[in-house]
Structures are given as structure tokens and as C-alpha cells.
Specification:
The chain is mainly alpha-helical. Helix content is about 75%, strand content about 0%. The chain has helices at about 1-20, 25-45, 50-65, 70-85, 95-105, 110-125, 130-155, 160-185, 190-205, 205-220, 225-235, 245-260, 265, 280-295, 315-325, 340-350, 355-380. Helix 15 (about 315-325) crosses helix 17. The longest helix is centred in the middle third of the chain and has 27 residues, at about 130-155. It is globular and about 75 Å long.
């Protein structure tokens, strides 16, 4: 029983950290990762309240997939439900059941896994089956859910997932066995074995974020360059082949590449890098960036340097937002390096262009850029 618990705990811990490390800015990965990490803690300390954490986190993740506009309300409700679980542990299953029902027909796979998890969690919370049976059942459901979330995120990013996930699992598993087995063989306490495995996995999965922190403290002058190189190396297994026969998919990949315009490390993983000549990954990413800029420049009207008429909107939506890095709706953005043209554009965005409108313009402009890039492919 101890060996099985250590295995499922380590697997859930690894997958939770893996999701968080993919992109810490994405709420879906945060919710799913928190659920897996909460389950790993519940395996070590099988308390009903701890098991409520993955139930509440999974509720948030499914809500983001089925009804993302409701997630703000759920963020306010999480704490009251968690507090209520101290007295009524099964109460955390109520929102999960409701949200799973909402996902039926929209996210069928997630709703099915949600039903499986709900049944396993109910069996644990109501003590219908022994913990030795219910905890592995819950762990299986959570791992399946975590893999589905990772695949969903990879599809949205236009990335491959199998090689990257397998590489992370193999390295984390090897390190966990290397250090955890020493504790087990020398008769160390169970808690020490769990914490040793957790620390070994965390050091491997979070190696890049930890290295970035160390670089900012020890070698700040080259920290950004070292981070870019690490991200490029990590992105290589995520690149998938480019398929040009589907214009809609090509446009979606172009939109995603534009959103990573200022990040060469992420552009390395873009399938659009196939449009460039062979060479070192960062050089190819820089050439892809140049192709995107050239296509954006071709959207610019010929009359003047800046305008606000309809013919300027697609160029403005891409050039100032992605190329110049102006974020008009972010209260945290303070730029002191803006020239007169940039300030005019910023003022126009803030006063005349709603955020949703800008998003729609960017989608339309990305389709034009994609058509321009495909035309270049056809002419070769």
C-alpha cells in the first residue's frame, strides 16, 4: 500500500508541477495543477478537507472550459466552500456536479472524467470503500484529467505534447527513484520518503524557473539571454510539423505566433518556423519574426505614418500591440520610451477602441498575415 501511495502521489505531484511550469500565466493550468498538487497532499495525509482541494480546483478548471465568463464568481465561492468542508466534507461535490453537468455536450471528455472523479471522491468522503481503493481511483481520474488539460493547452498553442511530457516524466521519475529509493532502502520514515520524492521531482520540473531566479540574483547582466536560451531548448520538443493545407489552422497558428512576437524562445516552438531556412533555432525564430514584421508592414496604408481610419485599424492592431509592445488596457504597464507616434496610438486605443474590438481586429488582421505568408509559400 505504501509503494502504491508513493507512486500515485509522485505522479500527481509531477503532473501538477508540469502544468504550472508550462505557462504560469494561464488560469486553466493553475486550476488543474492546484488540483493535482492538492491530491498529492491528500495521499500523504488522507484528510477529507484536503481531498476537497482537488474537487474545488477541478470545478474551476471545468468552468473555465465550459463557462469561462463565470470563473470570477467561482473565485469568490471557493473559500466559503472550502471552509464548509471542515464540517460537511461532501459539500465540495455539489459545485463539481453542477459544473460537470454544464460541460456535457461542450467538453465531453472532461465531463466524463468529472463524473468518474465525483463517484470516487464520494466513495472516499462517505467511507463507502476503503481508502486503499478510493485514493488510487481518484488519482487515476485526476491524472487523466491533467493529461487532457495539457493536451488541450498544447492544441491551443499549436504545439506537440507527447515528447515534451514524456521527457519531463522520465527525468522526474529517474530522479525520484534515485533519491527516494535510498530513503526506503535505509528504512527511513514514510513522510521522509514522500518529501524526498516531492523535492526531487520539483527540482527537475522547476529547473528553468529556479535557474532564472538564480541568474537574476547572481548574473543579472545576462539573465534575460540565458532565460531565452533555456526557453528555446525547452521549446524544441514541442514543435510539430506545419500543415499548410488547412487555411483556418494556418491562420490560428499565425495568430499564436503573433502573440509570441517578442519572445524568440516561444517562437522556436511555432510550426511556422518551417517557413524559414535551416539553421540554429534562435536564428530561425528571428527570421520568422522578420517574416511576421514584413507581413504586418504590408498592411500599412501608404498615406502617412499614423492614422485612425478604418484602413489603418488592422495595421495598428498588430504593429503597436505586438511589434511596439504597447498594452493600452494594462494598468501595470508604464512606458517611458514611447515616441510621439506611439503616444498618439496609445491615446487612440485607450479612448476610442474597446478591448473586445481590438481583439476582433487582431483576429482579422492575423488572417490577412496568414494569407500573405501562405502566398509566400506558394510562390516558392
Amino acid at each position: 500500500m505504501f509503494g502504491l501511495s508513493l507512486l500515485v502521489c509522485g505522479l500527481a505531484w509531477w503532473l501538477g508541477l508540469y502544468l504550472l511550469a508550462r505557462d504560469p500565466r494561464k488560469p486553466l493550468l493553475w486550476w488543474a495543477g492546484a488540483g493535482l498538487i492538492g491530491y498529492a497532499a491528500a495521499v500523504v495525509v488522507p484528510d477529507p478537507v484536503l481531498l476537497g482541494v482537488p474537487a474545488l480546483a477541478w470545478t474551476g478548471a471545468i468552468l473555465l472550459l465550459a463557462r469561462p465568463e463565470w470563473i470570477r464568481w467561482w473565485q469568490l465561492a471557493v473559500v466559503p466552500f472550502l471552509v464548509a468542508s471542515f464540517w460537511l466534507p461532501w459539500v465540495v461535490l455539489l459545485p463539481l456536479a453542477a459544473v460537470t453537468a454544464l460541460a456535457i455536450g461542450k467538453r465531453t471528455y472532461f465531463s466524463l472524467v468529472g463524473v468518474m472523479f465525483g463517484l470516487s471522491a464520494a466513495a472516499f468522503l462517505l467511507r463507502l470503500l476503503p481508502d486503499a481503493v478510493t485514493l488510487p481511483m481518484i488519482g487515476f481520474d485526476l491524472v487523466v484529467f491533467g493529461v487532457l488539460v495539457a493536451v488541450t493547452d498544447a492544441v491551443e498553442e499549436g504545439e506537440a505534447i507527447r515528447a515534451d511530457m514524456l521527457r519531463s516524466l522520465v527525468i522526474a521519475g529517474f530522479t525520484a527513484v534515485l533519491f527516494g529509493s535510498q530513503v526506503v532502502l535505509f528504512g527511513g520514515p514514510d513522510l521522509l520518503a514522500f518529501t524526498t520524492v516531492a523535492a526531487a521531482i520539483a527540482v527537475q520540473v522547476l529547473a528553468n524557473p529556479l535557474a532564472s531566479v538564480v541568474d537574476r540574483l547572481a548574473v543579472p547582466a545576462v539573465a534575460a539571454e540565458r532565460a531565452e536560451l533555456r526557453e528555446a531548448a525547452e521549446s524544441l520538443p514541442r514543435r510539430r510539423p506545419l500543415v499548410t493545407e488547412d487555411p483556418a489552422e494556418f491562420a490560428r497558428l499565425t495568430r499564436k505566433a503573433l502573440s509570441h512576437y517578442g519572445d524568440l524562445g516561444k517562437l522556436v516552438a511555432s510550426p511556422l518556423i518551417a517557413l524559414t531556412d535551416d539553421g540554429p533555432p534562435l536564428d530561425r525564430a528571428a527570421r520568422l519574426k522578420g517574416l511576421l514584421l514584413a507581413s504586418i508592414q504590408r498592411l500599412k496604408p501608404v498615406d502617412g505614418d499614423f492614422g485612425t481610419s478604418d484602413e489603418w485599424r488592422y495595421y495598428n492592431a498588430l504593429y503597436f500591440y505586438y511589434v511596439k509592445g504597447i498594452r493600452p488596457y494594462s494598468v501595470r504597464t508604464k512606458r517611458e520610451d514611447l515616441d510621439a507616434e506611439d503616444r498618439r496610438a496609445l491615446q487612440w486605443f485607450v479612448t476610442q477602441v474597446p478591448e473586445r474590438t481590438l481583439h476582433n481586429w487582431q483576429n482579422a488582421a492575423a488572417r490577412l498575415v496568414a494569407a500573405d505568408l501562405m502566398a509566400g509559400v506558394g510562390s516558392v
